[in-house]
Every structure is written in structure tokens, then in C-alpha cells.
Design brief:
globular; 31% helix; GDSL-type esterase/lipase family protein; alpha+beta
Length: 559
Amino acid sequence: MRKFLLFCLLCVCASPSIALASSPSSKNTPSSSQAATKPTPNAKATQSKPQAKASTTQSKSTKSHKKPKAKKPAPKLPAQSVLDSMAKKGELIDFGEDNFSHLASKLTQAHKAKDQGLRIAVLGDSHIAGDYIPRVLRERLMEVDSIGFVYPIFPPFHQNLLTHYQHKGFELINSRKDGARSYPLGGIIARAKQEGASIKLSLNFPKDNQDFSVRFVFKAPSTLGAFVVKDSSGKSKRLGAKSADQWEISPPIALHFPIHIESLLPNALLGGYIITQKGDSYVVNLGINGARSDLYQKWEQGLWQEELGGLDCDLIIISYGSNDAISPTINTKLYKQNFATFIRTLRKLQPKASILLLGAPQVRLKQKSGSYVQSKSYESVRNATKDLAKDEKSLYFDMQELIDESGGKQKWIAQALSKQDVHLTPYGYKLVAESLALHLKELAQKHAKKPSKKAKSQESKPLESTNAPEEATQTQAPKNAQESQNTKEPTATPPQESQQLPPSQDPAQKSNALDSSALDPSSPSSTAPHTEPATHSLPLPAESSAPQEIWQDLELKDF
């Protein structure tokens, strides 16, 4: 009995240690019973469930703190009837343009008289460079059948929708970005990096409209030769320079497109092509991203005036101001002075042409926060441009007024017509051009009924030469625009060889601002340097309003 009680006492004392050995905390203690007391898979799942639940609860609470932002509705283009109504909201102001009656006669007869072509040049910044505004003007105002002037190759995000380039071995030099040198009209140069650099230029015209008269703007490092040009009919023409390192414009050459241009020397330069026909119609695109109103001061005076003087324009549209307004402050007096000099030069070169100034849309600058605010100088530039149109008695069309009258900037953004910054979308530029074309035709109808006496007398006068004078030797006298149109050979056969045009002024000479009193096109030209009254350039802004990255998401596509 005593032994039995002692046995029971020992069992009672040993039971806590057995329970302790079987508990989970004894896992680290080596024991043969540990394997027998391992939790089963079901037990493991039971133990992990609370942790998973806690983790899920935690992730839910985290997600609750980061609620997804509500997506803004994607911009939606209005119906065509709405766009047509918006186009009527624009206003074209005539501040006394004396030449508009001449333009009105062209606009009202453009589709009737094949021998009286309509010719327009558009100079400007990024609002022009994409060719959206020029394209609509071609479609609405004429039966386009020619090119006029075109760059040697196009910078990125620039285009003329009637041309197509393939080039190899050329470097592009842009007067807007690169250092001081002598530039041709528009300020774009293609430099051959080596012998054999090539450009293939095709035109987007029907097969039966591929014969054109072409003049090449070029410069060569020596008189040995610069380029060889071959057309698709097998014709070959060698372009040789009369003087080394001086810009020249070749005589007209009858060519069948597409054409192939190959450099004969490294560092030979191309400055553009003048591509025309008899009685043709065209819109020239001279837009450059980031251009300001004084960009022309970098162009070589005698050269660009000769190039533009040969185009025989009826209307010149100028779209500058956006990049001038980037600076926090601006000298509006100097802005108007330099701009006015340019306008008066254009009038001397193109005595029949009407001048139309395009007021810039609102210039908005991106802040560090990502928001956009209006430039401090925008209103000053906008008002100065309108005042300039009054002073120079030109036509004026305000793009921002069209935007304001048809809903405002935010509405245009919501309707896929505008970007957040200064730029519009291709559809927005199309709407601007539609409005401009509509009001040009409306104004033309009014003027066609009441032509001014001054315009009539001006048209009856024989035109003076807009290029170099005839007092120079015959080998150095370029034909004016009218003569070149009337005397050139038919494009089906090559013209007779003629002497090349005179070289322009020394390229080492600095291209200062032009003084309007020294721009008489009838004054003799000379290769000798000549002095001009100096004018001051506008202060350079910190950065252009048209950086390339802005244009990377602006697709170059059909409307």
C-alpha cells in the first residue's frame, strides 16, 4: 500500500515535465519525443491563418490610405459642325493694307485662272514649323501645284507635307541654335560631312506633275565643284562655284522629280531649293521651332533678299512673338523696331504682297509644381504685335482671340485642340487656319467689289527688279521674279546654260540688323563689304518656348 502511494506521488510530480516537453516551446530542446509532438500540417495552417489575416488587414488599410486618383476624361474632338461654328469666331482686321485688292483678285479667281497662280510665304516659329497651318491654306485658297522655296533638309519635328527627303552624310546647321555665321533664307544649312553625301528629294504630286524648274542655293569650299544633281529621267548637272566660300544661287535647271543630290567635296553647303513652274501656286513654309522676331538678323542680307525676291509672293504671313515673350521682361520698343525693319524689308522685296501678322496664342510656362502659368511678357508682346500691325498698315489675326471667343484655353484643351503650354494640337492649328482662310475669303469678296485706286495704279506699273540691278555686268545680273517666270524654258526641256548669279556678300561679314533706309533693291550689289547702321538685338531668353521635347508627342500625321 505504501509502495502504491509512493508510485502515485511520483506520477503526479512527473506530469508537468511531460507536458512541458510536449509544448511548442520545447522545439529547440533535442528530444526523441520532439518528432512525435511536431504539429501536423493542419495545425500549421491553423497557426498561419491569423498571420495571413493580419497581413491582409494591413494591406487593406495601406490601400485605403492610397486611393487611386480619379482619371481626367480624355480630350474629345468636337463634331465638324461645332468646329465650323468655332472657326467663324475669329476676326481678321485690315489696318489699311494697300495691297489687299491685288490679293483679293487672286483669292476670288484662284480656281479659275490657271496662269495667275497664288503664292504665299509663311514665316514663323513652332506654330508654323509642323506645316499644319500652311497645309490648310494650300487646301482652302488654291489648287497647289508647286513648292516655292524649301529647306535643304528639315530639322526634327519640321516638315513640308508636299516633300519627302532621304539623306545620308549631311549635318544640319540651324541659325536658331548654332553660332554666328552667314545663313540663307530661313536659316537652315545642310553641310556635307564627306564626299558622296547624298540627298534624295521627292515631291508628293501626281506623276504628271513632276517637271519643275529648280534653282539651288549652295556654297563650296573651292571652285572645283560642289554637287552633282541627277533627276529621274537620267539628266545630270554639275553645280560648280564661281567663288570659294561664297553663297550662290544656280540658274534655273529643268528637272524631273525625284532628284538625287551628291556632294563632290566635304564641307560643301546647301541652303535650299527654289522649285517653281510657270503660273504656279504654292505656300512656302519658313517656320523654325524657337524662332524669335529678330532671327532674320542672322541671315545673310544679300542672299536671303535675293531668294525671297524671286518668289513673287501675293501674301506674306508672319507668326513671331511666342519666343520673344519667354523673357520675364521685354523691351517692346526694340521689339517693334526690329520687327518693323523686317516688315519694311519684305515690302521692298515684294511690292505686290499683302502682309499679315498672326498674334501668338497664350504663352504658358511650366512650373516646378507641374502647373502652367502665363508668361509675364505675353500681354506686352501681344499688344505690341497688334500695335505694330496698325503702324505698318497690315492685316492682323489674333490666335488667342479666336481661342477666347470659342471657349477659352481650358475648353480647347478638353476638346483636343490645345496642349497645356503655348502650343496647339494639329487639330487646333487646323482650326486656326480654317478660320484664317474663311475670313481672308470673306474680306476678299468685299475688296473685290471695291478695288482701291492705289492698288490698280500699282499693278499697272512695270515692276522694278527685286534682285541685283542691271547696272552690273550681264554675268552678275539675276533676273527678277517676273522675268524668270516669263523667260524660262519649258520644264520638259532643259534651259540653255546661263551665267551663274553673283556671289553674296562676304560670309565673314557679320549679319547685322537691316536698316530700312539702305534696302533699295535697285541699288547696285557688290561683293565688297559695306557698312550698315548698327541696331541692337533683343536680350536672349533663358530658353526657347519650343523645345524639341514638346514636339515629340505631336504626331506628324494627317488630320
